[in-house]
UniProtKB/TrEMBL annotation:
The gene is Osbp2. Belongs to the OSBP family. This is Oxysterol-binding protein. GO terms for biological process: lipid transport. The lineage of its organism: Eukaryota, Metazoa, Chordata, Craniata, Vertebrata. Keywords: Coiled coil, Lipid transport, Lipid-binding, Membrane, Phosphoprotein, Transport. It comes from Casuarius casuarius (Southern cassowary). InterPro entries: OSBP_sf, Oxysterol-bd, Oxysterol-bd_CS, PH-like_dom_sf, PH_domain.
Amino acid sequence: RTQAEMAHTCRGTINLSTAHIDTEDSCNIVLSNGGRTYHLKANSEVERQRWVTALELAKAKAIRMRNNQSDDSGDEEPASQSDKGELHGTLKTLSSKLEDLSTCNDLIAKHGAALQRSLSELENLKLPAESGEKIKAVNERATLFRITSNAMINACRDFLDLAETHSRKWQRALQYEREQRIRLEETIEQLAKQHNSLERACRGAPGLSSGGAGITNTAKGDVQSAKGEASDEDEETEYFDAMEDAPAFITVTADPKHHRRSGSNLSGASEGHPEDWNLEDSVFDSSNQTSYNESTCKDLLPKKRRRTRIPDKPNYSLNLWSIMKNCIGKELSKIPMPVNFNEPLSMLQRLTEDLEYHELLDKAVKCESSTEQMCFVAAFSVSSYSTTVHRTAKPFNPLLGETYELDRLDEFGFRSLCEQVSHHPPAAAHHVYSKRGWTLWQEITIASKFRGKYLSIMPLGAIHLEFHSSGNHYVWRKVTSTVHNIIVGKLWIDQSGEIEIVNHKSKDKCQLKFTPYSYFSRDVPRKVTGVVTDADGKAHYVMSGTWDEKMECSKIVQSSHGSTSSEGKQKTVYQTLSPKVLWKKYPLPENAENMYFFSDLALTLNEPEERVAPTDSRLRPDQRLMESGRWDEANVEKQRLEEKQRAVRRRREAEAVEALEEGKDYEGYIPLWFERKVDPMTGELICVYKGGYWEAKDKQDWSMCPDIF
């Protein structure tokens, strides 16, 4: 299949060119691609080997087809004049062949009629009886030939008519698509020119200062009203109408004085007495936060003073249209982008940034109730999006085999390791161990599409979190991120979708809904709501807040069925006690707008450190040059690294083809610090940490690391 066909395949297909083929035992085969996994079972080991060989050959063929269509890093060119000429040549050849078929059709009819006449004349001659019988038999066979020829001639005529009709349709459709593409390019180019002229007019307008004297740099000023943002947007901006999808429940705050009764008198009340909520001195009361640096000092003073700023972002101008016009409908990871659209962090570092509010998990360890613990896990899952509200720049795509470590064992009690385990599709494996009682691991594959007006980013893969003492094992997935106004207008990002967090030990669940932004909605922008339920489906807590500011938790004391909505669904009314803040976003550091809107933690992620692996993202030269403000040099270095990676990939593919031709097994790229296993919770094939990295760091033995920089 071509890439275009693969983008519109039916449900249940899998792209072999990027699939992993593994064998579990003597009869089982596992096919995985991103977040999709298929388990196949053969009748015998011989049959399994035949299937594996056939799949490997098909995979090699698919890889060759993909390489013929486009380069691995996306150096795809628009349709050239030679491509158009080739297409017209193909159509011309087809027309010529149809004309030949029509000529053959006429010749068969002509010669068949002549043969029939000759045989008839021969039959009328006066010949011996034996010869007459033979001529009669030949005449009968000629008649059968004439009947068969007529049938073939009719079939050919029908085919010709159909082919000519469809040929005209194809030519009209091709012409229409070509005109549509030209019209689209002209329209977007016009918009881009208008945008540039408006920017120039804005810069030259009197009375507009770049400093923005009327704006104070406070934490409150950093969080703008979504309504205010919308006024700056172009009228073409795509909005989602949240009013059409009303919430499934209503929350009413109860007066604790009127609920000092036993739980048996409450319909659907959560465990314990309502007054426990007010008297609790548990982790809920210690969930208020100050700032990143202050909270870290409460436990242990850092051994090393971390940096608090990076060089300011240079003000480089770039013709966005010249890059974007050939990217519509393509995979983002296959588009060659200059560093002007990046931020000086890799995707591995962005993944590690999810740990900014790790203290939520430290507090969750202390929870005695699994539903209470679920509240903190839910708040942690939402907190990972808080830094994205202003971060519209693209992180660097990691090179295959690139790693990133964040060793904060002495300061915060955890150490984190990421590795890029696949290039197409891009996949990163992540493992975090905390000596304060929890372990987190995940393998995330990023799928993304540029749609002209907006960019959709779909993280695929499950996130696992396990608490050591209780054995509670939580699993959830990320929501879709959308970057709006790619071509014209101010860039802004939104999160939408649902997260279902499941505790596989206690069967507790939390369903979180990220409401997409709507200009016409009366709801709070970037709203997140959810309910924590136990294994029996009884609701215990209501979660509410926004993904860019804070999350609150309210204990349910009573639940009842409310009125029926216009859609015919009956809403549940939860009577709750006063909410408690579980998580609140740290204020951004001073001058953040000139430092890519990095948080305090993000400013330290690319800080040079000694003793890290030679594949660590901190040592990536193009990223380091960009952070220093030397963007032109960074672009040159980025192209060098990508070409080096392409050469390695081509050599690996050649080795795979050679091994298959010799009948040998070829394992392909094997991650260095992670290994592929079937996840018992989800049934997917994922990369899990196999150990050895921190021991290698202690010994400073990096001999097994590849040369990727």
